[in-house]
Amino acid sequence: MDEARAREVLAAAGVLPGPASEARLLALGENAVFAAGDLAVKVGRDAELLGRARRELAVALWLEEAGVPAVRAAEPTALFVDGHPVTVWRRLPEPVRPTEPRDVAALLRLVHELALPLLLRAAAPRAARRCGTLAAPGGRRDRPRGRRVSA
Question: With the C-alpha atoms ordered 88, 11, 44, 123, is the resulting torsion angle positive or negative?
Answer without folding.
Answer: positive
